[in-house]
Amino acid sequence: MQVFALGINHHTAPLDIREQVAFDPTRLAQALHDLLRGRPVREAAILSTCNRTELYCAAEEPAAAIDWLASYHDLTARRIEPYLYRHPQKDAVRHMFRVASGLDSMVLGEPQILGQMKQAARVAEEAGTLGTLLNKLFQRTFAVAKEVRSTTAIGANIVSMAAAAVHLSERIFERLADQNVLFIGAGEMIELCAAHFAGGKPRRLSIANRTPERAQPIAARFGGDVLRLDEVSEKLADYDIVVSCTASALPIIGLGMVERALRTRRHRPMVMVDLAVPRDIEAEVGKLDDVFLYTLDDLAEIVESGQESRQSAIVEAEEIITHRVDDFIHWMEARETVPTIRALRDAGERARRHELEHALKLLHRGDDPAQVLEALSKGLTNKLLHPPTQALNQAEGGERTEVAQLIARIWRLHSEE
Questions:
Q1: Alpha helix (H) ranges present in 128-231?
Q2: CA-CA distance, 367 to 79, in Å (whole number)?
Q3: How far apart are CA 205 and CA 306, in angstroms?
């Protein structure tokens, strides 16, 4: 039985593909039962988030799970094949450890994914699809993630423009939870920023875009609402933090628009982050007393300052994971020998009981105890040595040498010159 991890994520698939293979959280248990029904999959768990859909399976091979994933979502395997990754055994273990530790996240080191993996394990356990192997793997995964987060600075560094935007906002506002945040645009950078800011649970989160339909999936994932781009001028005063990143050739937010918003806000401060090239926010806005305007260059300085500590943390985390993967694979390999060990001990126990029962009968009829013990020891020795002796005698050619070497290794024999 092998462990497999397969799925798609933000590294391999665009948002419209990720949407098509996402699972309804209320139907995960039913989906798990469907996956195991009539297929060569013994154990399974499903992780489905806004950035990834992954199946963790104990099976002989992953083909059945791949076909099921496509058919469950009314897709052809060909539709998702270009975006799909498959990790067998050791690579699957490494992948799960890295995901739980935040090394594979859109936001490096973000802690939410660990809670999402724990929820995936709980659902699978309640559904009865989490057996001994996957249960052990999940528990080891959580332990590794805890070790990585507690012994490295993986989650403590400013490692992206999005993280820097949050950092700068927190310099002005003590609590993001008290602020309204507006994102202008619906591209990958805005999605990444929304993920960062959503972690601070802002009071309101809105996405404005020329095409509201493109903004809707992002807003839905982070509990936000959608504005049309032409509504921004009217509603700008409602927002404390504005993050903009569009492909517009001209500024989206002008000086006059911001001045009107500040008057409505009675000059309560605003943080504005312009991640676009060319700029979405007119440079003159930064001269207003109540506006803190940050550009890509400002954020780049913060990110650069965290480069050294980030790289050090990643190296430390990867080293921890490598060691823990080896430990788990060793456990899996040792587990495969358990039936053989159990059978060997059972055979030895049967031989012991047989010889003991025979010896007790001889003692009961009055035979000399010394002779009985001698017979007991010889009988037990003969029974234990008969199988390897027979195997050696029946072996032929090169096999005989291999069997002889194996027996010598097992019994720790040393040939005499």
A1: 132-151, 161-172, 188-198, 212-221
A2: 81
A3: 27
Active site amino acids = 50
Number of Cα atoms under 13 Å in the Cβ half of residue 129? 28
Q: Looking at residue 159, what is its pLDDT?
A: 54
Q: Is the C-alpha dihedral spanning 39, 42, 48, 54 positive or negative?
A: negative
3-state secondary structure of 225: strand
Q: What would the pLDDT profile of 308-344 be if each residue is shown by its tens digit? A: 567 778 899 999 999 999 999 999 988 777 788 888 8
Entry field: residues in the chain: 417
Fold of 161-305: Rossmann fold (3.40.50)
Task: Please count the other Cβ atoms lying within 10 Å of the Cβ belonging to residue 379.
Answer: 16
* CA distances, 91 to each of 21, 95, 131, 329, 401 (Å): 22, 6, 20, 10, 36
Side chain identity, residue 111: P
The identity of residue 16, as a single letter, is D
Q: Where are the domains of the chain?
A: 2-157+309-335, 161-305
Structure tokens at 341: 């060990």
In angstroms, the Cα distances linking 116 to 9, 99, 181, 328, 333 are 14, 10, 25, 22, 28
- Map residue 199 onto helix, strand or coil: coil
Per-residue pLDDT for 301 more than 80? Answer: no
Q: What is the DSSP letter of 254?
A: -
Is 24:49 a contact under the CB 8 Å cutoff?
A: no
Tell me yes or no: is domain 2-157+309-335 CATH 3.30.460.30.
yes
pTM value is 0.62
